[in-house]
């Protein structure tokens, strides 16, 4: 049993930037097909994507799209910036990179 704990401790030290709560929040946020489509669309943009452009992509109520975007922002997967009454979004590449590193450790 002692050997197993050493592996867990080593794994935890390798992933100091992401704690388990953050990984859980990111995973839950990415567990919805609409949120995955939102992230994909924003990631294809050269720059920031306006909120109204995201709303226009789906046949959903504005409040529903806002809820999905909020979940992604709260999980630190999207960066948000306000311009007056409008918002724009960009993929948080650093957060995704850390998340992918974390997941990559399962393939070793």
Summarize the structure in words.
The protein has 108 residues and is of the alpha+beta class. A three-stranded antiparallel sheet has the order 1-3-2. A hairpin with a 2-residue loop joins strand 2 and strand 3. Helix 3 crosses helix 5.
Secondary-structure map:
Blueprint (H helix, E strand, L loop, with lengths): L1 H13 L5 H10 L3 H12 L4 E2 H7 L4 H13 L3 E6 L2 E6 L1 H12 L4
Antiparallel strand pairs: 1-3, 2-3
Keywords:
globular; 62% helix; alpha+beta; 6 helices; Arc Repressor Mutant, subunit A
Q: What is the terminal-to-terminal distance?
A: 20 Å
Task: Enumerate how many helices there are, as a single number.
Answer: 6
Q: What is the typical, i.e. mean, pLDDT?
A: 86
CATH superfamily: Winged helix-like DNA-binding domain superfamily/Winged helix DNA-binding domain
Instruction: Look up the CATH topology.
Output: Arc Repressor Mutant, subunit A
Q: Order of strands across the widest beta sheet?
A: 1-3-2
Q: Give the overall shape.
A: globular
Overall helicity: 55-70%
Instruction: Report the order of strands and helices.
Output: HHHEHHEEH
CATH architecture tag? Orthogonal Bundle
CATH class: Mainly Alpha
Provide a brief overview of the structure.
The protein has 108 residues and is α+β, with helices and mostly antiparallel strands. It has helices at 2-14, 20-29, 33-44, 51-57, 62-74, 93-104; strands spanning 49-50, 78-83, 86-91.
